[in-house]
Amino acid sequence: MAVSFEELKEKHPCFAQGAKSNNGRIHLPVSPGCNIACHFCKRDFNETENRPGVASGIITPEEAIGVIKRAVEAMPQIHVVGVAGPGDTLATPYALETFRKVKEVYPDLIKCMSTNGLMLYEKADEVIEAGIDSLTVTVNAVDPRIQAKINEFIIWHGKKYEGEEAAEILIENQLKGIEKVAKGGVTVKVNTVLIPEINRDHVKTVAKTVAEKGATMYNIIPLIPQHHLAHCTEPDCNLLYEVRAEAEQYIKVFRHCQRCRADAIGIPGGKDISKQIYLREVKLENTFSHG
Questions:
Q1: Which residues does residue 77 pair with via DSSP β-bridges, in sequence order?
Q2: 165 φ, ψ to 5°?
Q3: Predicted local confidence at residue 23, as pLDDT
Q4: Partners of 36 in beta bridges
Q5: Which residues does 48 contact at the CB level (< 8 Å), separation at least 6?
Q6: CB under 8 Å, gap of 24 or more: what pairs does 208-211 form?
Q7: Residue 281's pLDDT band (cuts 50, 70, 90)
Q8: CB atoms within 10 A of CB 271
Q9: Mind listing the pLDDT tens digit for each residue in 95-111?
Q10: Which residue has the higher pLDDT, 170 or 291?
Q11: Is the pLDDT assigned to residue 146 strictly greater than 70?
């Protein structure tokens, strides 16, 4: 049975209320492939950038258990094991395979997963069965006309879709998936990338919609202008405050996101020990693909 929201607030740094908690998390980079192409997403393998979509390499589900062992020995404050990429967790089977192993070997650790939600409705039963406690779904729009400006294409059941057709498929699967896993007892947090030129006035609608579907927490992430949206504006603190206030009419808003790497280990905003754990102990492979 998934842990309660109250326990998440105590042990999960992404659910802590108010000031940053002293609880740590480990991100396992076991998901190499992705099934959507976001205009703002530039995935990479390096050791320097601190942002989502970046890792030093890929590890296997078998290697992940050894990584967890070394991490919790080095930092006992780690209470959460998460998979957030660098691809999408449901585009390949490795994230759910990893969580099944974690459920068996480390039953007391909170299991957290992030996804774009394209396969969430179809994989909802597997997500629940794997013992996922908290699920983050990135929903950038619930209007296909707006979503089509954010995604280049999706790969769904082996076929490439573009434009509003792709957006309609993605949004439908996200919302149906959120509703299904929430009803199954999983705590759902929704991330929205704030792109001032595209979805600034739409975020409150996203917040209201996902709350109605069962999401508990909402996180508005400021755009990092890069890739195809390098020309767009990075939201400043004033704009973030305004949009968060609008969203908070409908759902609890998380305010201290650190935009973590897919292989981060430690306390968000504090010391990261990922190099100590990964690079010395695991031979990381640089592999990534769409589809």
A1: none
A2: -65, -45
A3: 78
A4: 154
A5: none
A6: 208/249, 208/250, 208/251, 209/142, 209/175, 210/137, 210/139, 210/142, 210/175, 210/178, 210/251, 211/250, 211/251
A7: very low
A8: 10
A9: 999 999 999 999 999 99
A10: 170
A11: yes
Please tell me the distance from the alpha carbon of residue 30 to that of residue 10, in angstroms, as a whole number.
27
For the purposes of burial, counting CB atoms within 10 Å of the CB of 291, is it exposed (0-12), middle (13-18) or buried (19 or more)?
exposed
The whole model's pTM is what? 0.85
The DSSP element (H or E) to which 113 belongs, if any, is strand 110-115
User: What is the number of other CB atoms lying within 10 angstroms of the CB of residue 18?
Assistant: 8
End-to-end CA distance of the chain: 32
Q: What are phi and psi of 162, to 5 degrees?
A: -130, 170
What three-state secondary structure class fits 190? Answer: strand
| Range in 108-122, 144-158, 251-265 with the lowest mean pLDDT | 251-265
pLDDT tens for 210-241 read: 999 999 999 998 988 877 888 999 999 999 99
Distance of alpha carbon 24 from alpha carbon 267, whole angstroms = 4
**In the predicted model, is pLDDT for residue 150 greater than 60?**
yes
> By CB neighbour count within 10 A (0-12 exposed, 13-18 middle, 19+ buried), where does 233 fall?
middle
Residue with tokens 């000031």: 19
Burial call 61-95: b when 16+ CB within 10 Å, e when fewer:
bebbbebbebbbeebeebbbbbbbbbbbbbbbebb
- The Cα 191–Cα 285 span in angstroms is 28
Domain boundaries, the chain: 5-286
Angle value at C-alpha 236, between 250 and 52, nearest 5 degrees = 80
Contact 137, 117 (CB under 8 A): yes
Q: Are strands 217-222 and 36-38 parallel, antiparallel or unpaired?
A: unpaired
Domain at 5-286, CATH from 3.20.20.70, 3.40.50.1980, 3.40.50.300, 3.30.565.10: 3.20.20.70
